[in-house]
Amino acid sequence: MQSKKELAVFLSKLKPFEEPNPKLEQYPTDAEVAASVLWDAYMAGNIEGKHVADFGCGTGILGIGALALGARHVAFLELDSRVFPVLMENLAFLEHKTDTTYSNYDIVEGNVASYTEEADTILQNPPFGTRNEHADTQFLEQALRLAPLVYSFHKTTTKEHISRIAKQHNAKITNQADFDFPLKQTMAHHKKTIERVAISCFTIER
Ligand code: SAH
Fold first, then answer.
1. Is residue 21 part of a domain?
2. Phi and psi (nearest 5°) for 116?
3. In the 3-class helix/strand/coil scheme, how is 154-186 assigned residue by residue?
4. 125 CB under 6 A from ligand 1?
């Protein structure tokens, strides 16, 4: 991938969740947003040649973007194995588009709370805790235990909470990228077609 734009176009062609489970807050990251965060992480030297983990990978947009940008290895971790057929289709699409065979990734079915593999960089767009309060806290704590550098999406309004958790793990927020997240109408309980929510991707380092 030669540019952020090219990456965004590629990511926009990945398949979304087939039957999103509201309890697990299965919202895909928007392709433009994912490309922006991934490209900035790549330019900062945090993707190419690195061991990357995608926590709560869903259909894989973050980890697949990392593979496309030259990660040494990507661990895709997901609780809900129903998403794996789509994830594998998306990986096949990456191979097709880049004319490359990738064997430098693992797909792991599991709960982030009991995951133990360390990484250089963790990417995550966790459940925001709208259904289970502070579901994102569990992701953040585990990520900070397992990697010195975490890119993590949260509601902008929860920054203080995120900052406190970071501090407890001797880490701090070193960057904040703000987005208006389009939460598309993929679930029955949504009324408006497109609802926008203020979301930030926090870079957290220890
Ligand atoms: N990373 C994807 C999906 C984000 S939605 C993207 O950016 O598009 C959040 C994902 O986290 C869902 O796929 C959900 O099934 C998964 N998830 C929720 N709780 C989890 C847990 N405790 N452990 C692992 N994955 C979890």
1. no
2. -130, 0
3. EEHHHHHHHHHHHHHCCCEEEEEEEEEEEEECC
4. yes
- Rounded-to-integer distance, Cα 103 and Cα 10, Å: 20
Instruction: Quote the ligand 1 centre to 58 CA distance (angstroms).
Output: 5
Residue 24 falls within a domain, yes or no? Answer: no
Span 82-119, pLDDT tens digits: 999 999 999 999 999 999 999 999 999 999 999 999 99
**Cβ-contact 77, 108 below 8 angstroms:** yes
Q: How remote is the CA of residue 83 from the centroid of ligand 1, in Å?
A: 10
Reduced to 3 states, what is the DSSP secondary structure of residue 123?
A: strand
Report the pLDDT value the prediction gives residue 183, as an integer from 0 to 100: 67
Examine residue 122 and state whether it is found in any structural domain, yes or no.
yes
Residue 112's domain comprises: 29-205
Distances (CA, A) of 180 to 73, 116, 147, 194: 30, 33, 27, 11
Among protein residues, the one whose CA lies closest to atom 1 of ligand 1: 57
140 lines ligand 1 (CB under 6 A): no
Judge whether 156 lies within some domain. Answer: yes
Task: Look up the CATH number of the domain holding residue 73.
Answer: 3.40.50.150
140: pLDDT strictly greater than 60: yes
Please give the tally of structural domains in the chain: 1
| Tokens describing residue 52 | 């990357």
Q: Is the CB of 201 within 6 Å of ligand 1?
A: no
